[in-house]
Amino acid sequence: MEDIPMSVIVHYGGSWEETPTLVYVGGTTKIFDELPADLYAIYFKKMIDSLGYEDISKLHYCDPLKRVDVGVRFLSYDDATFVEFLSLLYIYRVMDVFVEHEEDSEDELNGRGTFTSLLGRANPVVGSTNQTTEPRKPITVVDEIDYFDEGIDNEDVEVVNARE
Hints:
about 25% helix, 8 strands, alpha+beta, 3-stranded antiparallel β-sheet, 6 helices, 5-stranded mixed β-sheet
């Protein structure tokens, strides 16, 4: 029996929105499938560059076993973050990658903005059925992230600050 080929689903051209859960809306999705088993950062960068955007400011991926508010990780082309991404890709064979563009404005009044700006002010949960229109109550964020166990997000200062 052959191994299942690795695939990456890249969401680009959209932005993060709080509706009341945190989601990536708009844009396009491109699937890169049957990736080589020896995938490396430079090849991955060429894949992202093939989307045709020059205004990419950040990449994020989501741990497939976690909610977005605790599972989204910063992705770079260096070994510190790319190796963690690859290890999850090798295990789960399919990963979602989200592209953040430079023009993504922090329009927080309309619930839109960068991932870190919305994460810092909200308590998003993927798949939440709570659709109440009541105003959000202030939350106390407890730092339950063990960076040695969860991966390395300290490469992105905004993610670290938003989770504090």
